[in-house]
């Protein structure tokens, strides 16, 4: 099975995935059957899109090696465990090792806020906001804008990243001030 995703989706997911965590399944990126791509460290979650059609169940992959940034899209061959970074012409420019993680990925849809409860003030971890800026620049390097939809000052907020070709969002928990 070949999993295909864009540069902006892969690099953004790598920002928000857990690096070292006892919940080993959070150290990977989840490809869902509905075309969604998930990455979380337990405090914030990235929700993007992938272009794979053969996915029938959640597949969690962990990418080994250095982060490569000069590519257009990536293809992950699950049979061989190789990720190929491809340029705009479809030529492979670099490779990395990938391993499938056995585990059950958390249900991200449970933390996505349903409503939009306005608040007078809300606090966020500034480090998390800087990571959202990095992802926003991947989705629109010229005008990295975001839309913040708070749901009260005690439940998660959803942040939408602007792009005409792909949808992406980040769910982030507020912090008490």
List the helices and strands and how they pair.
Layout: E1 2-6, H1 7-16, E2 29-31, E3 36-40, E4 44-49, E5 59-64, E6 73-77, E7 82-86, E8 92-101, H2 126-139, E9 146-149, E10 157-161, E11 168-172
Antiparallel strand pairs: 1-6, 2-3, 2-5, 3-4, 4-11, 5-8, 6-7, 7-8, 9-10, 10-11
Helix pairs in contact: 1-2
What report would you give on this structure?
With 177 residues, the protein is α+β, with helices and mostly antiparallel strands. It has one domain: DNA Polymerase III, Chain A, domain 2, CATH 3.10.150. The chain has helices spanning 7-16, 126-139; strands spanning 2-6, 29-31, 36-40, 44-49, 59-64, 73-77, 82-86, 92-101, 146-149, 157-161, 168-172. Strands 1-6-7-8-5-2-3-4-11-10-9 form an 11-stranded antiparallel sheet, covered by helices on one side. The model has no long low-confidence stretch (mean pLDDT 90).
Q: What strand line-up does the widest sheet have? A: 1-6-7-8-5-2-3-4-11-10-9
Record field, number of beta strands:
11
| Pattern of helices and strands | EHEEEEEEEHEEE
Task: Note the overall shape.
Answer: globular
Question: What do the pLDDT scores average to?
Answer: 90
Percent of residues in helices comes to 10-25%
How big is the Rg?
16 Å
The CA-CA distance between the termini, in Å, is 47 Å
Protein name: DNA polymerase-3 subunit beta
Concise structural overview:
This protein is of the alpha+beta class and 177 residues long. 14% of the residues lie in helices and 33% in strands. The chain has a single domain, classed as DNA Polymerase III, Chain A, domain 2.
